[in-house]
Write a structure and sequence with these properties.
Layout lengths: L6 H19 L6 H8 L3 H7 L3 H26 L3 H11 L5 H17 L3 H25 L5 H24 L6 H14 L13
Keywords: DNA-binding, Repressor, Transcription, Transcription regulation
Organism: Winogradskya humida
Protein name: TetR family transcriptional regulator
């Protein structure tokens, strides 16, 4: 990367390099040197923007949050009903294609690092709670007659299932193929009475 390159292009290349290293090489390989190699620039240029490994990780997590938020907002806006919106938003959070599988690897890598770092953990909690609030809002819209406790309980169950599928599907797509992940999602929604194909809802 040329030093004369415009700053937006430099920033985009560095962001892509941070993401690629963490997604393709893993948490242990995420270093300033590895990002510089992936971006085709000097370590000094990387350190000017990301002075340490924590900064690299925070940036990767912020990219994941922004990417996911943009996608789910579009899915919500395009859904024909609250139940369809709920399914679409939960589905995109699983490892259903190459892009979402990489996102799952980044999410898992960040969480592994955050366990021993309170600053990283605070970032994770903030973003994860925003995700929980979104899913809870969608569940409430899909079953408006449910009491708050029921909505909260179902939200936790759906998040646990889909995030588990995302992690397993990214790590072992042969054992957890996309079709099985989608079937598990549909089965879970049906068990809660939230499937989009019927008018049935689970009892509060």
């Amino acid at each position: 990367m040329s030093r004369t390159a415009d700053r937006p292009a430099q920033g985009e290349a560095l962001s892509r390099a941070v993401w690629d290293v963490l997604a393709d090489q893993g948490l242990d390989r995420l270093t300033v040197r590895a990002v510089a190699a992936a971006a085709g620039c000097t370590t000094g240029l990387v350190m000017h923007r990301f002075p340490n490994r924590r900064a690299l990780l925070v940036h990767a997590r912020e990219l994941l949050h922004e990417t996911t938020r943009g996608r789910v907002e579009a899915l919500e806006a395009g859904a024909a009903s609250p139940r369809e919106a709920l399914r679409a938003v939960l589905r995109q959070g699983m490892a259903i294609d190459a892009a979402t599988a990489r996102e799952s690897v980044v999410w898992t890598g960040f969480l592994a690092a955050a366990v021993a770092d309170e600053e990283l953990l605070a970032t994770h909690r903030q973003n994860n709670r925003a995700w929980r609030e979104r899913v809870e809002r969608l569940v409430a819209a899909a079953a408006p007659e449910w009491p708050g406790g029921r909505v909260a309980s179902v939200t936790l169950g759906l998040i646990a299932m889909t995030e588990g599928m995302a992690a397993f599907g990214a790590a072992d797509p042969v054992a957890y193929p996309v079709a099985d992940q989608e079937r598990m999602l549909d089965d879970a929604l049906a068990a809660y009475g939230l499937d989009a194909g019927t008018g049935r809802r689970g009892a509060p």
